[in-house]
Amino acid sequence: MVSNGSNRGEKVPSLKLTVIQYGILFMMLALAGGLWRLQVLGAQNYRALAEQNRIRKEPIMAPRGKLFDRENRLLVDNYPSVSCFLVREQSHNVEADLPLIARGLNLDLDQLRATIHHFRFSPGYQPIPIKEDISADEQAFIAAHRNELPELETIDEERRLYPRDGFAAHLIGYVGEVSEDDLNNPRFAYYEPGDVVGKAGVEETYDALLRGTDGSRDVIVDSHGREVGYFGTQHATPGQDLNLTIDLDIQRAAEEALGSAPGAVVVMDPRNGDILALVSHPAYDPNDFAVKINRADWSKLITDPLHPLMNKAIQDQLAPGSTFKIIMSAAGLEEGVAQNMHVMCNGGADFYGRFFKCDKHHGLLDIDEAIPMSCDTFFYTLAQRLGIDTIAKYAIEFGLSQKTGIDLPNEMSGIMPSTQWELKNFHQRYYPGNTISVGIGQGETQVTPIQLLRALSGLASDGHFVRPRLVDPDQQRPPLSSDFRQALLDSFPGSGNRYVPLKPDTWMTITNGMAAATTPGPFHTAAEAHLEGVDFAGKTGTAQVVGGGDTHTRGGSKTPNAWFVGMVPRRNPEMAVVVLQEHGDWGSGSAMIAQRIVIAYVNKQRRLEKNVLQQAGAAKPVEVGAVWSDPQPAGQDMVGTPTAAVHAGHFYVDPDSQTGPVAAAPEALASGAPSLLPAWLRESLLRFKEELPQEYGTREYGPRESVP
Amino acid sequence: MRRFLSFRDFDWGLLGLVLILSTVSVLEIHSTTAHTRFSSFESKQIMFIVAGMAGMFILAKIDYHRLLDWSPWAYVIFIVALIAVKLVGHKALGAKRWIAIGPIQFQPSEWVKLILILAVARYFANLGGRNLTWREIFKAFALVGVPMALVLVQPDLGTTLTYAPILVAGLFLGGISFRQAAILLICGTVLLAGVWSSGKVLKSYQKARLTSFINPDNDPRGSGYQIRQSLIAVGDGGIWGRGQSKGSQTQGYFLPIPYTDFIFAAFSEEHGFVGALLVLLLYFFILMRLIQNAQTASDLPGSLIIMGIVAVLTFQIAVNVGMVIGFMPVTGIPLPLMSYGGSSVLFAFLALGVAMNVRMRRFVN
After folding, report:
1. pLDDT digit string (tens) for A283-296?
2. Number of domains, chain B
3. Rounded to 5 degrees, what are φ and ψ at A65?
4. A122 contacts B235? CB cut-off 8 A
5. A165 vs A284, A305, A582, B227, B321, CA distance in Å?
6. Using CA atoms, how far apart are residues A537 and A577, in angstroms rounded to an integer?
7. Residue of A nearest to B91 (CA)
């Protein structure tokens, strides 16, 4: 097209090119003129400027935002830390001082020599970092040897202080110096080398808010780079403090309940997605990263077969086992299949020419019994009736095989097999026999704990599925900007908040089924987890691992993974919990862990409800019982008449109002007594309110004795 | 008709000049980064240069007429990529200049420069060098204006500005009349004044950067800081310079980013007026050699391509060196062939590859 004949002969007029050449020559001359002006005419002046007055910008690190739990209890703090530097030009003979320095700072002498040697070509005024985060003793050593060791300098820094022993480590994450690879990553486009950034967990997700803006100090230095004064300061803007949705009490209960077993626990409020606790064991200690992790510790962390760095709550992808039967039930009921199904369980059944086993002989049952008894035969049959694609359709609706969109980095999405999936990944047709295993949550299905929690608690909430979150954008001071919220949604895509309409029948059946599972009854799988007086519902899962068969040695590599998903109350739950124990054997064991967490949760709720002091903020009248007798009315002659009888009754005290009780119970005040209590009683009642101990009215509920 | 192309026709002299400049660049990057955490940058720069030379030889082999025929497609693809940066590139919680395709992240705005040179050359070559109508002029404005607008909103003011000389060179050589040029100039001035005072297009930090060069002493701690340190560095060099790795402005970390945007200041401090003049002379020879190649090109599109490259290089040199010596505002435009950076080195060598391409086919008809 371009090389057609029309412009063959055309050329750029050489006059114009000559004009351009002269233009460039003129430009070059102008630049050379500028250089002449600076370097020849102004050389003296600028040399003097370079020698004397020099302002060097030195960064002032912004303190990183602190992390609090939902009740403003401190989770992550900063602490002042001192690092020691060595400035060679401040001493005559550094080499001779090294043994003393090594002893005083508890350093290895050879290593110290190597560090100094490494910097041998740097200018003498450049500080060489020799030890970070030095102890009080070492600080005292430096102070005491000011005169003998003038080359030692200290610098104050702020460091992160995390909870000890890996408490909540995976959800909090840790910080570290941005690496050179990171700087090439667009996420870190605005970061500079040496910046400390969040590398995992909330620290990473909310880094932009937590980090604040560094300030700078303009230091006047002499020609050798030594500081001689300050010019001015641009103060750093501290990072924003964040309130996590975590409840420290629940988190502690969950950490303790899971114990040392490898696995994960997540507790969520399914009404809004607030994560109340998130535990992954084994954990690591983020404080090890706060200074500089040594190589041995690091290689121990990454080679540990139990994967301590992995956040199992959002990254462990495993077969869901029998917990999947809830999703099966919902699919079956929505399709109108499961309602009328009656299946005879004789310890298994034949499908596609193969015998599929059930671990009990459940007899004839329908769906109301099949859920609490977790009968495999029933769900094999249901899976066969529905077919893999119908099952997959519902499972995907409920969020399987997609990330939930929780605000934590590197969430995994899991797998939900279907004919399409099989075709795409293995280029083959789906073998219908596999559907049977999928029906009981085995086969290729893989879920993460958080995914399973969102799915099952969403079903119990009548199809209202939520996006789990660790930070409530509205509960921050100030609330997060809409830009940041949008960026979060974009950065952590997932199934998110979603309403899937369910038939009322579906909702009732599966919630009742889960409630029955934790109630004593024949074959009920989580009967030991029963709590009298608490509407606790749930479903166990004992998911066999590949090649595992029927081995039941706890902790063995082929032992099934133990799941439990539970919620309180059974419908529209206020809290839902998922427990995963890797190779933990039976799901009923995980149910016991969930039970301990539920006890902690319920006790806390009751304590809050009954605690008048806590109630004082909410303008809800509090019921108070009281006994009193009438005093003699003043000015009236009552001699001879017996004092009035002792009264008893209930009062509703409005804790906010200064005027006392709003209403008195009628039976206490017969014969048209005034509706307001006498002043003396009002006073004593108010005092009563103040003296009320925190624990008033709490009944502790422990686990029941074992059920036969 | 098709003649065997030999690398004997390759412009070895031009390549020699470019390689001398690259060596100077590597040495200066070494000097400025030796004691910092970037001390591996000079070896990276060597890698970029080697990769750039490989790309240059490959581009030189493909007939530039074919490149011209491809350019509309490439243009469309990169416009889509720029829009994708705006939409998909959102992920970066702030900066939006990059998109990731597979494991490679790339910055389409640098590549657009090369494609624009080809597209503009193709556009004016098809018009055949006769007088332009207003309609044709506006089409040319649209051709360059769309990518400019897309890069400006990223926001990347520096790269946006480097697209402008392509259009100016194209219009000048493509046959704009004196009267048309005068009218455009007046309209442009009025429009710029309007944009400046409206405060909608340019962010305030961009404005501050653009004005502080006029009097850096007004604000020695704010946006004038970089200019001021740069002037001191250049002046400190004197006639003969402080010597390699001995500039106190450079080595004392006073000069901001001395390995990229302010590398010329660092070089001037350490090698003085003589060294700086030699580097300017090298640039001058390279540009003159390119213009000579444009004169001897076998057809109009060939000349237009080379002149597009000359326009971009001249503009970048003028703006960068001008910034260093206080003639121009701080815009973040790197010095071609001197500044550290993969995209910038790669662009320079690929552009030279296209220029070599035109030269090698100068006897084709």
Report:
1. 888 888 766 666 77
2. 1
3. -60, 145
4. no
5. 7, 19, 21, 50, 56
6. 10
7. A491
